[in-house]
Amino acid sequence: MSLSFLPVLPGDGIGPEVTEEALRWMRSQGFSLPIRRLPFGHGCWLEGGEALPSSTVEIIRSQGVALLGAATTPDEGCRSPILQLRERLGLRLMIRPMPPEGPTLVIHSFAGLYAEAEEEGPPAVSRWVLHPHQADELAAEAFSRATRRVTFVDKPTVRRHAAALFRQAAERHATCPWELVNADAFVAKLVKDPESFDVVAATSFVGDLMSDLFAALGSGLPTAASVSLGPGVAVFEPVHGSAPHRVGDADPSGAIAAARLLLAHLAQPSRPG
Questions:
Q1: What is the DSSP letter of 92?
Q2: CA dist 142 to 190, 200, 221, Å?
């Protein structure tokens, strides 16, 4: 992959601190392209009324990659900057190696609870949405990366229509054994034997829970990183939040892990974004 500069979204809290450490690490690995830091996050919203300016979106789209630090979501009417970024860049899948360099991959689709904004209450209403093409895309990505087995995690004993979509997609793309399991049963097995899993696939919220639990059982959430993929674009970020209470004493391991994923992505142009 070729790019003329690296877009960086430092964001809020510890985001600027850990991204600087990640950039320092990239330089030590020979990365020499210019860096362009872009406005993004709660601080950006406070200054200009936008958490995600259109110029930031267009610059990321033009380069095809970005390194993100962290973002704070306030309660004063500003929708999550991260969710806005996913929507406007068309990001569809998130991949999290667990621990930071494997052997397990957690892949989750931004379908599910994150697909639509929550309806104002009372009562508060969130819709869980899964289209056939989203299940298909998730399955295709999962099997393309699996070496032993793909485990789809949801609640098939209750959500039977969604389970049918998962099964149909898995049957179309299967290149290895696979299973569709209830999330509660999965958690019980994960706690006992986390290394038994290869690729774990789920929709949003469930995928967030699974990957955070993997991280907590391993080297810890501050060390985890992810990449979000969309049409021609990939955004790399540490999994942790903005953690403003840790400013000045932040662990940059997750941001460095994200930078490592980014360099691997740049070195493999055949991998779709």
A1: -
A2: 18, 8, 22
At residue 248, the pLDDT reads 92
**Sheet architecture: strand order including 104-112:** 35-37, 6-11, 65-70, 233-238, 225-230, 93-98, 104-112, 199-204, 150-154, 178-182
Contacts of 98 (CB under 8 A, 6+ apart): 104, 105, 106, 194, 211, 214, 215, 218, 224
Q: Are 206 and 153 in contact (CB under 8 A)?
A: yes
Q: Which of 26, 98, 10 shows the shortest CA–CA distance to 266?
A: 26
100 pLDDT tier (thresholds 50, 70, 90)? low
215 close to 239: Cβ distance less than 8 angstroms? yes
In this prediction, residue 89 has a pLDDT band, given cuts at 50, 70 and 90, of very high
Beta strand ranges found along the chain (DSSP E): 6-11, 35-37, 65-70, 93-98, 104-112, 150-154, 178-182, 199-204, 225-230, 233-238
Lookup: tokens for 4: 């003329």
Q: Kindly report the average pLDDT of the chain as a whole number.
A: 91
20 and 259 Cβ atoms separated by less than 8 Å: no
Confidence class for position 158, pLDDT limits 50, 70, 90: very high
Burial per residue of 214-227, b for 16 or more beta-carbon CB atoms within 10 angstroms, e otherwise = bbeebbebbbbbbb
β-pair partners for 67: 8, 236
